[in-house]
Amino acid sequence: MKSLRALHVGLRLAATVLIGLLAMTASGVQAGDGLRIATAYKLMTLDPHYANLNENTSLLSQIYERLVFQDEELQLQPGLAVGWEAVSTTSWMFKLRADVRFHDGSPFTAEDVVYTVERIRDQLKSPSGGYRSYVSAIKSVSVVDPLAVVFKTDGSVPNLPLALSSVFIMKKPVQGFATTEALNGGMAPNGTGPYRFEGWASGEYLQLAANTDYWAGAPAWPDVTIRVIESPAARVAAITTGEVDVADALPARDVAALKKRGVKIASVGAARINFLQFEMESHTLPGVTDKAGAAIANPFRKLAVRQALALATDRGILVDKILAGYGTAAAQVFPNGLPGTSDKLLPIAPDVTTAKKLLAEAGYPDGFRVLLAGPAGRYPGDSESLQAITQNWARIGITVEPQAVPFSVFNTKRAAGEYGLWYGGASGEAVDIILDALLASPDKARGTGALNFGHYRNATFNAMLSKAESIEAGPVRDAALADATEFVMADLPIIPLYHFHHVTGYGPRIGAYLMHPRGWTTAMQAEPAQE
Amino acid sequence: MKAIVLRILLQRPGLDRTAGLFRLRLRAGGSQIVLAAFVLVAILAPLISPQNPYDPLQVLGWDASSPPGTVGSGGYAYILGTDGLGRDILSTIFYGLRISLVVSIVSSLAAAMIGLAAGVTAAYFGRWIDAVIMRLVDLQLSLPTILVALIAIVTLGPGVDRIILALIIVQWAVYARMVRGVALSETRKSYMDAAQLLRMPTLRILLRHLLPNSIAPALTLLPIEIGHAIALEATLSFLGLGVPLDKPSLGSAVANGFQYLMTGQYWISLFPGLALLCLVASINFVGDDLRRRLDPRSAAR
């Protein structure tokens, strides 16, 4: 009994100390006249080549820079490189920016570019967090002079500049190479970006200070505190109370109430797509039966069935009701207007009568039953979309059993072929990268079809896409990509649903916040309010 | 002066007890009516609901998030509003009551039967059988209920039948412990000795003599445990581990509205939550009353 009481007192003491410590860390993170950001992006590493996810790249892009970067129109702009050109079909010359210094004071030179490419290609464990694909076509990279490098490629690689727009440049160490462990465990990240690293806790916060020597001039904020707040409701609360100046990934349904409380809202259509995808290779499918529950042949192999389902889907409800207007109905992989999109592809209005007719002609006058899988809480409106589609398709006699599971479970089961029909999402730098991953035939050697879990194969489309990808960046390439998209979307290997909008809220200390379609959140996007 | 006399009068034990009993009866009587109304609504749900919220053809997505009183495109009014997918909240409550009541009653009855069997067996045979059963009960009761239920659901998978199974797993131990205590004192009574001396078959002794005399505590426990089961089912559904997405129970209806709380669409969570509160409270009051009547120590018997 006595020992129990001692234990109880001990526990209470420990709890008090713990709360005190937490309060101290919290106050240590408070900033004076700096910028305070609440983000959903859970930064887990300081290694810029650890994993190619917005979670890492968005926040690290304040410390590290790329040779080229994508602007708000997804066009390439000079970053650490001031210019680039294809010298021959298999080599590219990049001219580097002069008078750029890393945060430790050392100059940026061609050696650092070579080191960065070799770190990803040769030293990190493949696939180098997904970065390997950007440099795999590079046969060699060599220093021409301190401010020029030449990339020799394996065959023609017209989109090498785009590939390099994902690669952060690191400082070449005196010897060896920086391991991920060293970068996460105390070695200060050394970049060329507008903000320098001050401190962090994995998955909790990142503290930055202005890099006053920045080549484009000192940045707007003297210091920046970024707090990882994973719960959307908590981010809404943080921006409402003025605890932070910027909060990203806000739920669209909360926007009206936030505006009423004086929070300003910025939004942009995301360079990404959410869609329904069919398994199109197997002849029988898990979770697909006739109305009596008997197994049937895979109905999704018939174009008429896919057309009927697309016609029965009411994207208006998804966009207006579920996303509260912060979404765009989709007919292709990127929102209309971005490079490589087709202006002929527009979302079709639902048409139940035609859909029913098509379904009957395909041999399913009474419809069928299907399990529709999807992740819960991964994308805005994901599990609600499953239920809205259940309602839509009931009108043409199709009984849908919606099943939303945690993303990790969904991902594993989808990869294992346990689903016949599912809701998915894809994003990327450009239209061709999404087409390559989502709709090109799965091919390990060529690196295509990584997201083509439905095993869609269309030789004509593959050829059109490859041809478009061999053209140098510009309007001709974009037109060829648009043609390929028009061709493949007529075959409906996926039903495009919507492009959700990235929604960010900001407080009175911010004058303007510039949204990026890739969904990044950085201090550079926040412009201080004029007093 | 008058007030003092009145107070003295009221302080007389007899009068006070009568008044107390009267209040008790009235409260129980009120909750019996409320409970009966809930059960009636659950049974008649398909007849009295304006909409079948489980039929995707009847739910109109374009009417999503309508405030209470809106007349929808179906021509009828959404008295308590609609949720984010266009389901009528009133109808969802009616249908959700069915799931809540069926799940809790079935699971509690099954758990009571298993608990009775286990408790009586443990008490009658004693020794290692008693030890094994009771350690199992101790082990289970030492773990938080919600944790056991969560583990059970994660292992068994989602679905109404799995929820019932999970609730049985959670509840049987409570009955087993209570019944074993009563049965143990019964085994020491002379009628049990008589039965054994007459060399009655063991099964007959268990079923005809020990069981009927040990059943009272299980019966008083039943309504309280039904209340617990409703709350637990609602908790599991709230956490997204319960009933299927498109067939909301009261718990998942509250969860559906939870994400809309900050938006001012209070009705999605509030009304199912109130229904849940009234249901569990009325069951608890009725259970309390039943316990008082059946408890041999209570003078109300």
Map the helices and strands.
The complex is a heterodimer of chains A (about 525) and B (about 300).
Chain A: H1 2-29, E1 35-39, H2 54-60, E2 68-70, E3 76-78, E4 81-88, E5 91-96, H3 110-123, H4 132-135, E6 138-145, E7 148-153, H5 160-164, H6 180-184, E8 195-201, E9 205-210, E10 223-228, H7 232-240, E11 246-247, H8 255-260, E12 264-269, E13 272-278, E14 284-289, E15 295-297, H9 303-312, H10 315-322, E16 327-329, H11 352-361, E17 369-375, H12 382-394, E18 399-405, H13 407-415, E19 421-427, H14 431-438, H15 459-469, H16 475-489, E20 494-506, E21 510-513, E22 526-528
Parallel strand pairs in A: 1-10, 1-11, 17-18
Antiparallel strand pairs in A: 2-3, 4-5, 5-7, 6-7, 8-9, 9-10, 11-20, 12-20, 13-19, 13-20, 14-15, 14-17, 16-20, 21-22
Chain B: H1 2-11, H2 13-48, E1 70-71, E2 77-78, H3 89-125, H4 127-142, H5 145-156, H6 160-187, H7 190-197, H8 202-238, H9 250-258, H10 267-294
Antiparallel strand pairs in B: 1-2
Quick tags:
heterodimer; A: alpha+beta; Dipeptide-binding Protein, domain 3; 4-stranded antiparallel sheet; 16 helices; 22 strands; 24% strand; B: 301 residues; mainly alpha; two-stranded antiparallel sheet; 10 helices; 73% helix
Question: Can you walk me through this structure?
Answer:
The complex is a heterodimer of chains A (531) and B (301). Chain A is α+β, with helices and mostly antiparallel strands and 531 residues long. In chain A, the strands form 5 sheets. In chain A, strands 1, 8, 9, 10, 11, 12, 13, 16, 19 and 20 form a 10-stranded mixed sheet that branches. Chain A has a 4-stranded antiparallel sheet with strand order 4-5-7-6, covered by helices on one side. In chain A, strands 15-14-17-18 form a 4-stranded mixed sheet. The longest helix of chain A has 28 residues, at 2-29. In chain A, 31% of the residues lie in helices and 24% in strands. The model of chain A is unreliable at 15-31 (pLDDT under 50). Chain A folds into 2 domains: 15-263 and 507-528, Periplasmic binding protein-like II (D-Maltodextrin-Binding Protein, domain 2, 3-Layer(aba) Sandwich), CATH 3.40.190; 272-501, Dipeptide-binding Protein, domain 3, CATH 3.10.105.10. Chain A contains 16 helices and 22 strands. Chain B has a single domain (46-56, 87-300), classed as MetI-like (MetI-like fold, Orthogonal Bundle). Chain B is elongated and about 75 Å long. The model of chain B has no long low-confidence stretch (mean pLDDT 82). The two termini of chain B are 37 Å apart. With 301 residues, chain B is mainly α.
